[in-house]
Amino acid sequence: MRTLIALSLASLTLAVAACGDDEKTSSSATATPATASKGPACDKAGLALRSPGKLTVGTDKPAFPPYFEDDEPSNGKGFESAVAYAVAKQLGFSPSEVSWTVVPFNSSYAPGQKKFDFDINQISITPQRAKHVDFSNAYFTAPQAVVAPKGSPIAGAKSLAELKTAKIGVQVGTTSLDAVTNSIQPSSQPQVFNDSNDVVRALKAKRVDAIVVDLPTAFFLVGAEVPDAKIVGQFQAPGGDQWGLLLQKGSKLTSCVNAALGKVAASGELKRLQDRWMGGDTAPELH
User: Fold this and answer.
1) Which of 244, 217, 215 is nearest to 139 (CA)?
2) CATH number of this structure's domain 40-141+241-277
3) What are the residue ranges spanned by the domains of the chain?
């Protein structure tokens, strides 16, 4: 057994592009530290924003607990909503000056122009993604979890080896898929779904023996969405699974957002938000 999350409190500094295989988290996704002090370039009036006077924040829909509450990112409830507003405050924005926009998960890190200033949506920092977007340093580090429906043949598994013959469901484009492929190494290809709704439907309908998601999501699923399912256990994604705020490639905001996030962490507010919205749960370790 172990605590839910080991939060990375490493120095929060400028994140820029790096190279490597897709979906493999690496510290190389961040580069030479930049000063975290708020200089003239980070004054609110001088920020290069998508809409003048407004900080535009992106996330997917539906927006699930514990990251967002009531599928309403703008209410400030839930871990990622609260983190976004804490960063906005450090940049000089009041809650009324923050505008939210819907950004599908897979399109957030795709090449091209962005319709947000930054996106927050449990997006793992990976070298492949960092070729096309900027990341802040990590605001969260998450293990993976195996969730099985009632009556699943692997519900009592105690090790990753016992999952090799299981039919496992996972969302496309996620670190969870990489974790299944590299850590579990199933004997048959995992069943890949387009979005989180499809993953949950497959779990409810017992079309899979288990699904793999990050641990906080797993606790929400068994607590609210699929109460007769169970968390079989947790395991670490290869290289860890760190989440960062995502920005346009080469964004002039990256250093300022990173400095603001660094202040949220240094003040202890980031940990308080984690403890309030994410902390307290445990699950067996699978090796």
Assistant:
1) 244
2) 3.40.190.10
3) 40-141+241-277, 144-235
